[in-house]
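Hey, I was hoping to borrow your eyes for a little while. No rush at all, and the record is pasted right below:
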Amino acid sequence: MIPDCGPLPIGDLFDYLPLFRHLQHLSLCSTRIKSDISEQPEAFSVFRHTLSSLTFHTLILISPGLASTIDYFPNVRDLKVTDPIWEADHQQAPPLSRPLRGRLSIEMCGYQVLSTFADRFSGLPEVEYDELLILGNFHPTSSTSHYQRIIDTCGEEPQAPGVG
């Protein structure tokens, strides 16, 4: 049996990330992302504008970390989030610099994980995903309202300034 070593410190990758100057897909698994990735060392900046696909799998996220990480990579059009682990933080998510577009794939096994994701996601402004994939088991009795909030967030029409 292999012992659980806990999350991989993302700092362990900083020496290697600059080698991937034209990286298009980044998949992070079992690691921790702090609140603001733009404050991380320059390791991510070498592929900031080439990254088009981003996957979070059992990633430990501090509440505003999801929005700031997605926003840091302006060309990400394919986002997949699988069973994030949320750490409590009472910070507000930063405003996005652009609308979120493309495809969102989510897979949430636990009711609480889905509930927390729905809370965080529905609070994001300017979400304009044109494709939403809901993967895994669907439990209609316990998750319908959470999925509905995610669907509503993706389907909201942005309002013109001064309209409301």
Summary: Confidence is low (pLDDT under 50) at residues 1-5, 158-164. The chain has three helices and eight strands.
